[in-house]
Amino acid sequence: MNRWWQEKAVYQIYPRSFQDSNNDGIGDIPGIISRLDEIKALGVGIIWLSPVYKSPNADNGYDISDYRDINPMFGTIADMEQLFSEAEKRDIKIIMDLVINHTSDEHEWFKRSRDKDSPYRDYYIWREPDQSGGEPNNWTSFFGGKTWTFDPKSGEYYLHLFNEKQPDLNYHNPNVIAEIKDIMRFWLDKGAAGFRCDVINVIFKSSLEDGVHRLAVCGREHFVTQEGTHTILQELRREVLDNYDCFTVGEAALVNLRDAKLLTDPARRELDMVFYFDHLNVDRRIEKFIPKKFKANKLLKVLTKWQQGLYWNAVYLENHDQPRIVSHWGDDGDKYRERSAKLFAAMLLTLKGTPFIYQGQEIGMTNFDFEGMAQINDIETIGVDKLLRSFKIPARLRWNWLKASSRDNARTPMQWNAHPGAGFTQGQSWLDINSNHIEINHAEQERREDSVLNFYKKMIALRGSSETLKYGDFAPVWANEQVMVYSRTITGAEQLAVILNISGKPAATQIENNLIGPIIVSNIGRGEYDGTLSAWEAVVLKIW
Ligand code: TEU
Ligand code: CA
């Protein structure tokens, strides 16, 4: 049976950068409420809200100090309740970000946990120094540095897979799991329609032994998708989620297909879908920082593996941790920016799974135009800069890599209009606004028929009304380094072919004979397909 979360498209909001309502330069919940009509007009039915909870903002809200309260910079619980009800009026559901691998070090639990005799001590992972007084093991953090920080007060180290201000919770402690269940119920009762579960596959550490030596995230074999994680997810599903009409999408760091299948197999009742990273890393080495050549055939291979390997996919090309897709795989120059942005819209909405659109993606926002580290806010970028420095990577190359991959690329404020402040704020924005908001902005694109925004609207509507695009089988058809072709089929009913030239050069496909059919989507207004493609051209054909 098909579920509502398979039918609808999702829009991700990064609250700090979406809409400021009081001109303090920081987006907020009243700001989101004021933009619900634009979100509705896009055609999406679900919002994923990045964290709005109380937080000292070491990692912009992914470090929570109170799970039941709202960060005053974003508003109040009453604002949040109003957001739920205003969204509901428009038939939009909201999923919350559930960040439970770690809390903030300013969370009450952690403050008490610093005391060795407190019942909260065991909420976190504390260990004595090793024999020479050093760290308990050799693990390294997702953000490039150490995973252990020494607490002089108790003479022990605590574990943090991310920043030292994000201590990891101890999932061997049933009290921790009980607390998490209560927090989930709290938000589900308020109206949340589910959760995006932050780095959910690393919550359970099966041992604290040394990891095999690696350049990044050393120790992973002891915490990535361990059996204990599966058990906990099943428990959360059974005891909490099953009592609500909701869904979960888990962010699965460093996940492989085998484990992703276990996490999302409907029969196992863990998560409904996961975000994996394989496809975004086709042109990267060592996670995401070091680039290599993009090849469309490589991408098709990776997509095929996941599209065919999982029961249901979460399909995404951008989020708050990734560069903008037009800058990453597309062309963000004047000539092809819009065309390549539309190509990725066509890709996103013709793959099988629930599509996730990140704020700004629908108008083809580009990477930032910062000039140096001084303008960077993101702790991951700062951590990785240090790591690359320690590998003696020269400054210029370091900046080129970070500029291409920094999470701040996605975090510059939403470009609503061409005015100073981009319609985001009339104050000083927390992160600089991209100077290209004069050309790339929502207001201009709303007015212009052939804009990226209108193309997204058409693609979202098309997917929503097409059983084949929602549920048809995915199959690879043909690819080379520039072009990829795949089909979506409901046997006996319909077959569509998607043809994408992911390159700035003209191309030709060698499959014309199998692919005769009228064009139902073209990003250049083409009337008929003749086997040739211009730069960044996308077409969808109805084969039968
Ligand atoms: O991201 C986890 C995660 O895996 C990223 O740090 C990832 O390694 C990197 O950004 C992509 O290369 C989640 C959140 O999405 C992120 O914003 C948080 O900083 C992180 O968890 C910690 O909560
Ligand atoms: Ca504000």
Overview of the structural elements:
It is a single chain. This protein is α/β, with parallel strands linked by helices and 544 residues long. The protein has 16 helices and 22 strands. The protein has helices at residues 4-7, 29-34, 36-42, 77-89, 108-113, 174-190, 227-239, 257-264, 296-309, 325-328, 337-348, 379-390, 395-405, 442-447, 452-465, 467-471; strands at 10-13, 46-49, 53-54, 66-70, 93-98, 126-127, 148-151, 156-159, 194-197, 247-251, 273-275, 284-285, 290-291, 314-316, 354-358, 473-479, 483-490, 494-501, 507-508, 519-522, 532-533, 538-542. The strands form 6 sheets. It has an 8-stranded parallel beta sheet. A 5-stranded antiparallel beta sheet has the order 16-17-18-22-20. It has a 3-stranded antiparallel beta sheet with strand order 6-8-7, with no helix packed on it. A hairpin with a 4-residue loop joins β12 (284-285) and β13 (290-291). α11 runs parallel beside α15 (452-465) and α12 (379-390) packs antiparallel against α13. The longest helix is centred in the middle third of the chain and has 17 residues, at 174-190. The radius of gyration is 23 Å and the shape is globular. The two termini are 25 Å apart. Bound molecules: 1-O-alpha-D-glucopyranosyl-D-fructose and calcium ion. 1-O-alpha-D-glucopyranosyl-D-fructose (TEU) is lined by residues 59, 62, 99, 142, 162, 198-199, 251, 253, 287-288, 320-321, 380, 407.
